[in-house]
Amino acid sequence: MSFTLRTRFAAHTPRKWRAFATVTDTPAFKIPLIDFSRYLKANSSSEKRKAAEEIVSGFKEVGFIYLDKHGIPDATVKNAFAKSAEFFRLPVDTKDKLKWVDPRSNRGYVAIGRERVTQSSDPDEIAKLRAQAPDFKESMEIGRDWDETWKNQWPEESDAPRFKQTMLDFYQTCHDLHVHVMRAIALGLKLEETFFDKMIDQQCHNLRLLSYPPVRDDILRKEGQARAGAHSDYGTLTLLFQDSVGGLEVQNPHTKEFQPAPPIPGSIVINAGDLLARWSNDVLRSTLHRVVAPPAQKVSNTEAITPQRQSIAFFCNPNFDAVISCLPNCGKEAKYAPVTTEQYIVGRLSATYI
């Protein structure tokens, strides 16, 4: 099953399905909806391989998939969203004590306007973009909690009860799912199913809690402005949990147009990142995407407000010392020089933040 990305909804579509309706002038550009239980609970090796090939096909053609029946209970996701919302409601002074300070750590609170995601790697160009149109969002970045060098920035338990434990549990849950998806990718690429296991077992990931506060519509209409600018992700996979507000848009690589990727209840949006594209010699696609504001709600004759949005992104990375070089069956000539995970990600983060 697949969903064609649309730029508008059909007026005749029944109301309860209208959020998932799809039309486009390029019908080949579809985000597939994958029933992951067909891989996790396969009754035969051929059934498992077929499910794996469907996942790889989605990453080849679009770079994005919707993953359904993935094994993470709805209650677990809802609890993570609830604790995330509680955190962002804390006073600014409390959150600022936990501020993000170092791209090597990539942990802590990021205030509105501090990050400017873009494909550029030029610090001067990024600074100009940030001054003109900063990303209108705030985030909390969480890494593996046992790291001896880089420590997570946790709020006091009295300020955010059970926040820390909820996020540690969710981090582990997401890592476990990531392992299964990487095994499916390996199988779909005709590698040993456990090919990636030893290169992702150090859990060098980033759990990002995101809050997009209400904002005046005229601010988001400025040139180049978005809740999060167009970018690709840096690692191997991103697991994205969306609320019902939506706003994610994916660029059709053929037309260069951005088209909505509406939330589908119970599913996780998963996209391939830059390091997986490099690993696969661009056999798997790292697709540009952005977050735009949904339709604004009028509060006066001259002013409208876009609603608040929440999301949680789990950025999956290989081990920091893993060397990312062309996989053995992804082309005879490598497009990219080998690079370690740490070299690539720290370089991108250093240019993205102030």
Number of helices in the DSSP assignment: 10
Q: How does the major sheet shape up?
A: 9 strands, mixed
User: What is the helix/strand order?
Assistant: EEHHEHHEHEHHEEHEEEEEHEEEEEEH
Q: Radius of gyration, Cα only, in angstroms?
A: 20 Å
Estimated helix fraction: 25-40%
Biggest β-sheet: strands ordered side by side in the sheet: 1-2-3-12-9-16-6-5-4
* Residue-averaged pLDDT: 84
Residue stretches low in confidence (pLDDT < 50, at least 5 long) are 4-26, 116-120, 129-133
Total beta-strand segments: 18
Q: In one word, what is the shape?
A: globular
Q: What is the terminal-to-terminal distance?
A: 42 Å
Strand percentage lies at: 15-25%
CATH architectural category:
Sandwich
Full CATH superfamily name = B-lactam Antibiotic, Isopenicillin N Synthase, Chain
Which structural class fits the helix and strand makeup? alpha+beta
CATH class: Mainly Beta
Q: In the CATH scheme, what's the topology name?
A: Jelly Rolls
Count of separate structural domains: 1
